[in-house]
């Protein structure tokens, strides 16, 4: 590289730094969950190289079944920060008959396991649920397992409640699955090399709202418990880490991009910052549809802000989780904007959600396109 080229690059670099100086916070927020994970993987590879070891990539384990559908019915206890739930998995063995099935189930208190096929035994460890069937399930034969359990998650699902010192009016829970943390609140094949449709039912006190992937099928109040059941259905396949649930008190702003419902949900205490953060989303959706040439693939596009969310955002299918730190008012517009983060997460609805890397060693493809 000659001296003139170096000087030119240095000048351009200084100009770019000046241009983006006021957007430093926005650039930091743009780092979604996958970006942070890429940094960790790269650091791990560099450390291995320095020690003369082969890089340790994160490959997904082999699949022995094809999961067709996952249905989760969850009743959270906000005061105790726990949940009671049932997970139903529809599946069929692939390649060879299935005698045993191992599911990720970290910290779950398994209460009961039933199946469409006779079960010989079950064993629950700190990290897995092992189901042994009396007779091997033939290859390609449809089967179902229903698992009833309780959980007090340490990862994957997080509560923010008055008992923790937060305003009672901002009470909420939210989930974060990437890379492999959903196993802390529901049993699953918690890796990205399996796609299936999903249903999430969440039973919460009246006045709260529950959000999940896909479209809302129903919202019904139980006369006996007083709880309201929100029933969401994701009818296009996606991977386990993109399943999401947020529940609690929210204020929303909504609009449409053509026939596509678009909305932003924030904690009530942040309602004054709602409009500015929402203002670019529809323009971003329109831009990507034109540039990519593929219509937006899901039933809706919602953003929801989670209190103390650990990253900038997470592109859960049809429902992105955002940090409340991305919210801004007219007074802070020259210091911070949500545009970059908003665009990044919208792009992931195609690159990462519609098309997904098989394992984490190919994560750069998700992030490279987004």
Quick tags:
seven-stranded mixed β-sheet, 37% strand, alpha+beta, five-stranded mixed β-sheet, Neutral Protease, domain 2, 370 residues, single chain, 19 strands
Descriptive notes:
The structure is a single chain. The protein is of the alpha+beta class. The two termini are 30 Å apart. 21% of the residues lie in helices and 37% in strands. It folds into two domains: 183 residues, Immunoglobulin-like (Sandwich), CATH 2.60.40.1730; 120 residues, Neutral Protease Domain 2 (Neutral Protease, domain 2, Orthogonal Bundle), CATH 1.10.390.10. The chain has a seven-stranded mixed beta sheet, with no helix packed on it. A five-stranded mixed beta sheet has the order 15-16-17-19-18.
Provide a concise account of the structure shown.
The protein is of the alpha+beta class and 370 residues long. Helix content is 21%, strand content 37%.
Helix/strand structural class: alpha+beta
Average pLDDT over all residues: 89
Under CATH at level 1, the class of the largest domain stands as Mainly Beta
For this structure, the CATH topology of the largest domain is Immunoglobulin-like
> What is the domain tally?
2
CATH architecture of the largest domain: Sandwich
Q: In CATH, what is the homologous superfamily of the largest domain?
A: tricorn interacting facor f3 domain
Report the portion of residues in β strands. 35-45%
Please give the radius of gyration in angstroms. 22 Å
The SSE order reads HHHEEEEEEEEEEEEEEEEHHEEEHH
Number of discrete helical segments: 7
